[in-house]
Specification:
The chain is of the alpha/beta class. Helices cover 35% and strands 18% of the residues. The protein is built from 11 helices and 8 strands. Strands 1-2-4-3-5-6-7-8 form an 8-stranded mixed sheet, sandwiched between helices.
């Protein structure tokens, strides 16, 4: 099939993309990883705690990969009821090679503000220095450790929602599969925002959006190679490394997936939701017309971004009020 011209970008999103500069990652090479890390800007503490409206506790749990400590920053709303809080376990983006626990956190805190949740953000280790399975096991170990201590921190162990953006969304999907297959804990839900699911990087949308948007096929190839080495794209990649490799998505919690029409990950996200439905799962899928990868983080003021965030919030509210 001939790769067609990509779908049109939303006008406001396109304008934001044109002025984004270094926030756009296309045409990436292996040597660019260090450059991207050097450009990272620290998130001020006042933004992490929302000017003291959240109480911060830094916890550590041993990674199942090698016993190394994994830091989890727990943020609990100040002055809320003493009843156990639901918690959003947040996994940041960055293509598995850059980023830290406070990246993408603002949008997660926005949802927490409106739903009475705590937030736990995981400082997992990065590739290529720490390839698969280390980042996934860091995240799974952090989830299990926090769940085991939930009552101590006034968290509700029956209302853990795993969230992730981009690479963090891919890790969240992989962790959900891992805990499904290895004794839990049970999740109330998973919220996957433009998740990075499939190392094969060979979908129609991956080819169609080459050189387009904020994360293209070349950047994706560099990231997967850093994470999986020479195995990337080959026949022997585990579903716990790339959740898009899973053949059975039964037994997963209710899942929200969103992606944009003008992005590399579009088709793999649609395929993931389709397989969940075929396996009898509960999935809500949104494909935002005219958006590019992570458009609502690059341009949160646009109407399209506001609609995307409102839809996530509505799903989370419904999830938290469900009864068995």
């Amino acid at each position: 099939m001939t790769t067609a011209q990509h779908p049109p970008l939303d006008v406001a999103v396109a304008r934001a993309l044109e002025s984004a500069g270094e926030e756009v990652v296309v045409g990436m090479r292996d040597e660019d990883i260090a450059t991207l890390r050097a450009k990272a800007v620290p998130v001020p503490e006042v933004e992490v705690t929302r000017h003291g409206t959240y109480e911060r506790a830094d916890l550590t749990f041993p990674s199942a990969a090698d016993g190394a400590p994994v830091t989890v920053v727990l943020l609990r709303p100040v002055g809320r009821s003493h009843s156990p809080l639901p918690v959003l376990v947040h996994l940041h983006g960055g293509g598995l090679v850059v980023g830290g626990p406070f990246d993408d956190l603002s949008a997660t805190l926005d949802m927490a503000d409106r739903t009475g949740c705590a937030v736990a953000t995981v400082d997992y280790r990065l590739a290529p220095e720490h390839p698969y399975p280390i980042p996934m096991l860091d995240c799974a170990s952090a989830l299990r450790g926090l769940h085991a201590e939930a009552r101590h921190w006034q968290l509700d162990p029956e209302r853990f929602v795993l969230t992730g953006v981009s690479a963090g969304g891919g890790l969240a999907a992989a962790v959900a599969l891992h805990v499904r297959d290895h004794g839990g804990p049970a999740l109330l839900g998973q919220l996957l925002v433009c998740p990075m699911l499939d190392d094969r990087n060979d979908s129609h949308s991956a080819h169609q959006m080459h050189g387009v948007g904020s994360w293209d096929r070349s950047a994706n190839a560099v990231a997967w190679r850093a994470y999986l080495g020479e195995a990337a794209g080959g026949p022997n990649v585990s579903l716990y490394a790339a959740a898009g490799r899973a053949l059975d998505l039964g037994g997963l919690p209710p899942t929200y997936i969103d992606v944009a029409s003008v992005e590399t990950f579009r088709d793999e996200c649609v395929d993931y939701a389709r397989l969940m439905w075929r396996c009898g799962g509960d999935a809500e899928l949104h494909v935002w017309p005219g958006g590019h990868h992570a458009f609502d983080f690059l341009a949160p003021w646009t109407p399209l971004a506001q609609d995307a965030r409102a839809a996530r919030l509505a799903w989370l509210r419904r999830l938290l009020t469900r009864r068995p």
